[in-house]
Amino acid sequence: MRHGQIGDGQTALLGEGERTARELDRRLGAPDDLDLVIPHQANRRILDAVRERLGLPEDKLVVNIERYGNTSSASIPISLDEVVREGRVKPGDCLGLAAFGGGATWGASLIRWTLARQTPASAKNAVLGASRMAPTSSPS
């Protein structure tokens, strides 16, 4: 098996990009309709291949692998949390989520964001407010 291949011969980088593109074509019609793509953060080579396959500019692909490494199934929610806190997501944005895993499993979703836009300051205050909450006592 060559490096980067899944057991059935499909490469992860082609599989994720192709499947995301097919889902996008089925639902929207064009990568231009996507505001952000939040992929599984497996490795930079795969992320770059997905971006190239979809024809996306660098600013539309969320990449944080340099900060966290491959966080497996947590990479999409971590990335989503980051872009929301950074204020990069606003109501009406179309987000593409894509992941792959062992055994040639994969998933791709398109979501329309409906929550209010966060600003970096409001996100920071929300986190600070949550940390000031009194702990709940557990029954003895």
How would you describe the overall organization of this protein?
This protein has 140 residues and is of the alpha+beta class. It has a single domain (12-117), classed as Peroxisomal Thiolase, Chain A, domain 1 (3-Layer(aba) Sandwich). It is built from 5 helices and 3 strands. It has a 3-stranded mixed beta sheet with strand order 1-2-3, with helices on both faces. A hairpin with a 3-residue loop joins strand 2 and strand 3. The relative contact order is 0.17.
Short description:
The protein is of the alpha+beta class. It has helices at residues 12-27, 44-54, 65-68, 75-85, 120-131; strands at residues 36-39, 94-101, 105-112. The chain has a single domain (12-117), classed as Peroxisomal Thiolase, Chain A, domain 1, CATH 3.40.47.10.
CATH classification, class level = Alpha Beta
**Mean pLDDT over the full residue set:** 74
CATH superfamily: Thiolase/Chalcone synthase
- The strand order across the widest sheet is 1-2-3
Number of helices: 5
Structural class: alpha+beta
Biggest pleated-sheet summary? 3 strands, mixed
Low-confidence stretches: 1-10, 127-138
Shape: globular
SSE inventory with pairings:
Layout: H1 12-27, E1 36-39, H2 44-54, H3 65-68, H4 75-85, E2 94-101, E3 105-112, H5 120-131
Can you tag this structure with a few keywords?
disordered C terminus; disordered N terminus; 140 residues; alpha+beta
